[in-house]
């Protein structure tokens, strides 16, 4: 029997929220919806297979060169259902080389196995990428802050001359009321954080006006980054439009479009990702991975995810095969004495940084809590690895709390990611080194920042 409110039970509620939001935004093709993988995760009759990722129903992803052959194989196997390729607008066709195949009511895992096995055609589900977890939510829900900004706002113009693009949920209306996100003139001028600014009220529930799940995530991430490195030039994209999630090929398309328009920055900060079918790298990100290799001045810093497990989380797990190009970031607990309970871990995680109870820019308003109060850790309920993890919270489901001053306290590998991004940016300014070289120094422990030194594992 399921214990109450584990990482897994939260997944199903989040999946439901994702479908409600996707429907309201008309964000998915036809009658498609988000389902839970891997195979059997949605079947109570098969026993307990933990849900690990969300994917698009009725579709598989293949390389465009394999489209015709894949359609022939699928028809030969079962001609009773339609199968066709989803066409992309002309301007997008050359930006990504993967294509979605609509396969109707066929069993998606049967089709994937058929293509992989019989014809050696790579095919995968179309996974949802979400702001830092296959668990489809941040490590915890935002709460009213108790202390000051965490990390504190640096008084030095760290990051000057360094460009960072953050792919996340965009910026909330009025984000620049926070001085560290706004332009500052004077002896040490600081550029305003720029990006996709949401319409006023876009982050609020239409029924009761409360703050939507995952709203403010991109603003919070940008705030953490600018506290560590206040002079960094930052652009925040709203690539994850469906309550902090997006389909892998669509997110990759937004990334490729943005980089084509703006040029490749020094650092791409991606506080998002997903677990995948059979732990394989994301097929939808293959073009990005290839082009990253062609842009030696750009580094990807990506969140390791908040599922508290050691299975690879993508695209962060690319750090294992291309460590010079990708840094994957796990989270430390607040006292810096070990890994946070929610942080993923494993050989593919490059570095751990503070990720519990960060305090930064959010949305002014009321947050309505989705999950029950807990007295134990969600990930280690019977044998806590440490006391005081952020899972333990006295707030009850349905409770509403005001988040004053448009600030919140929040936890997740999503927020450890901009700390590492900011530290790399600061180090680049200080040394004149390029981002990949700076990251190499960081990973070898040669980076020392007074406020955060000693916290690296
Ligand atoms: Zn915990």
Automatic annotation (TrEMBL):
Regarding protein family, the annotation reads:
Belongs to the peptidase S8 family.
- Keyword field contains Hydrolase: yes
Protein name listed in UniProt: Peptidase S8/S53 domain-containing protein
**UniProt-recorded Gene Ontology molecular function terms:** serine-type endopeptidase activity
Would you kindly state one Gene Ontology biological process term found in this protein's UniProt entry?
proteolysis
- Show the InterPro entries listed in the entry: Peptidase_S8/S53_dom, Peptidase_S8/S53_dom_sf, Peptidase_S8_Ser-AS, Peptidase_S8_subtilisin-like, Peptidase_S8_subtilisin-rel
Matching Pfam families: Peptidase_S8
Keywords, A to Z, come to:
Hydrolase, Protease, Serine protease
Task: Indicate the segments forming the Peptidase S8/S53 domain, all copies.
Answer: 159-443
Please give the organism. Acrocarpospora phusangensis
Positions of the catalytic residues: 168 (charge relay system), 217 (charge relay system), 414 (charge relay system)
**PANTHER family recorded for this chain?**
CEREVISIN-RELATED, PEPTIDASE S8
Record's GO cellular component terms: extracellular space
Q: What is the lineage of its organism?
A: Bacteria, Bacillati, Actinomycetota, Actinomycetes, Streptosporangiales
């Amino acid at each position: 029997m399921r214990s109450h409110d584990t990482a897994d039970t939260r997944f199903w509620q989040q999946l439901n929220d994702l479908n409600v939001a996707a429907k309201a935004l008309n964000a998915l093709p036809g009658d498609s919806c988000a389902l839970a993988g891997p195979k059997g995760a949605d079947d109570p009759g098969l026993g307990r297979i933990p849900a690990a990722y969300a994917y698009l129903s009725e579709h598989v992803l293949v390389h465009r060169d394999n489209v015709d052959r894949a359609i022939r194989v699928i028809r030969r196997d079962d001609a009773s259902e339609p199968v066709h390729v989803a066409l992309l607008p002309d301007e997008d066709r050359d930006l990504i080389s993967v294509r979605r195949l609509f396969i109707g009511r066929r069993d998606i895992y049967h089709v994937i196995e058929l293509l992989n096995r019989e014809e050696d055609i790579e095919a995968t589900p179309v996974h949802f990428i979400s702001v830092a977890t296959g668990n489809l939510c941040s490590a915890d829900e935002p709460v009213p802050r108790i202390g000051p900004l965490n990390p504190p706002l640096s008084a030095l113009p760290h990051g000057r001359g360094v460009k960072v693009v953050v792919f996340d949920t965009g910026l909330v209306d009025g984000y620049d009321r926070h001085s560290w996100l706004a332009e500052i003139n004077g002896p040490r001028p600081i550029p305003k954080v720029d990006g996709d600014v949401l319409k006023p009220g876009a982050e609020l529930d239409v029924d009761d006006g409360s703050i939507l799940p995952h709203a403010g995530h991109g603003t919070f991430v940008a705030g953490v980054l600018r506290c560590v490195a206040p002079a960094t030039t930052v652009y925040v994209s709203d690539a994850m439009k469906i309550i902090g999630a997006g389909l892998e090929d669509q997110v990759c398309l937004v990334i490729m479009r943005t980089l084509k328009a703006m040029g490749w920055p020094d650092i791409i900060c991606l506080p998002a990702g997903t677990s995948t079918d059979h732990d394989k790298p994301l097929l939808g990100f293959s073009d990005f991975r290839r082009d990253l290799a062609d842009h030696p001045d750009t580094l990807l810093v990506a969140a390791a995810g908040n599922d508290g497990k050691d299975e690879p989380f993508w695209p962060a797990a690319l750090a294992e095969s291309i460590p010079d190009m990708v840094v994957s970031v796990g989270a430390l607990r607040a006292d810096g004495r070990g890994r946070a309970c929610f942080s993923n871990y494993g050989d593919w995680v490059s570095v751990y940084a503070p990720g519990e109870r960060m305090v930064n820019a959010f949305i002014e308003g009321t947050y309505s809590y989705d999950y029950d109060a807990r007295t134990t850790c969600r990930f280690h309920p019977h044998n806590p690895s440490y006391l005081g993890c952020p899972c333990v919270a006295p707030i009850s489901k349905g409770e509403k709390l005001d988040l004053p001053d448009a600030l919140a306290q929040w936890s997740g590998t999503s927020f450890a990611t901009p700390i590492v991004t900011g530290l790399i940016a600061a180090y680049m300014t200080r040394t004149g080194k390029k981002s990949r070289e700076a990251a190499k120094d960081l990973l070898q422990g040669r980076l020392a920042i007074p406020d955060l030194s000693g916290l690296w594992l």
